Amino acid sequence: MAVLRKLARPLLAAPFVTGGLRTLHRPETVAEAARPVIQEIGKRIPALAGDPLQPARVIGAIQAAAGLTFATGRAPRLSALTLAATLVPTSLTAHAFWTVEDPHERARRRSHFLTDLSTLGGLLIAAVDTHGKPSFAHRSRHALDHRHPVAAVRRPVEAAAARTVHRAKGVASSLTGTR
Span 154-177, mean pLDDT? Predict the structure, then answer.
C-alpha cells in the first residue's frame, strides 16, 4: 500500500502544481474567468474587491505549494484538504456549464466539472487517509492512557476487582440467606 501511495500522490498533485505555476506565470487567464466570482465576494468582503489578478496569484501559489507538499508526502492530509478547498471555487468559476447555452461548450464544461468532482473525491479520501495509523481523534482520546501506563493498567484492574467483590457479596448473601 505504501508503494501505491507514493505513486498516486504525485499523479493526483500534478495538475495542481502545473496549474498553479501556470497561474502564477499568467494570472490574467484565470483572473478573467474568476472576475464574476471575485466581484461577488468583493461585495461581501471589501478587502477582496480590488484587482482580480491578486487572488488568482494567491490561489496559484497555494495550489503549487500544496501540490508539491502533497506529492512529496509532507503533511499529506493538510495538503489534500488545502487542494480540495482551492478546487471548489476554481471549478465553480472555470467550468460553470449551467451558464452556457451552446450545447457543445456546455458538454465540454460539464465533462471538466465532473472531472474536478472526481478529483475532489480523491482529495477528500487522501485527507482522511492515516496510513493505517490511529487518527488524531483516537490518539487524543487515549493520550492519558499512553502517558500514564500505570493508570492504563490500574483502571481495568480496579473495575475487575469491584465486579469480583460485588459478585462475592452476592454469593455470600445467597449462601447465608441474608440480603
Answer: 82
Question: 68-78, pLDDT tens digit by residue?
Answer: 999 999 999 99
Q: Which residues contact 113 (CB under 8 A, 6 or more apart)?
A: 91, 95, 96, 97
Is the model more confident about 38 or about 8? 8
Burial 30-63 (b: 16+ CB within 10 A, else e): bbeebeebbeebeeeeeebeeebbebbbebbebb
Tell me the Ramachandran region of residue 133: left when phi exceeds 0, alpha when psi lies from -120 to 50, beta otherwise: beta
Angle CA 32–34–40, to nearest 5: 125
Confidence class for position 158, pLDDT limits 50, 70, 90:
confident
Q: What CA–CA distance (Å, rounded) separates 154 from 170?
A: 24
- Alpha-carbon torsion angle 92, 94, 95, 98, nearest 10: 70
State how far the Cα of 43 lies from the Cα of 37, in Å rounded to an integer.
Answer: 10
Q: Hey, how many other C-beta atoms are within 10 angstroms of the C-beta on 156?
A: 9
8 closest CA partner among 73, 64, 66 = 73
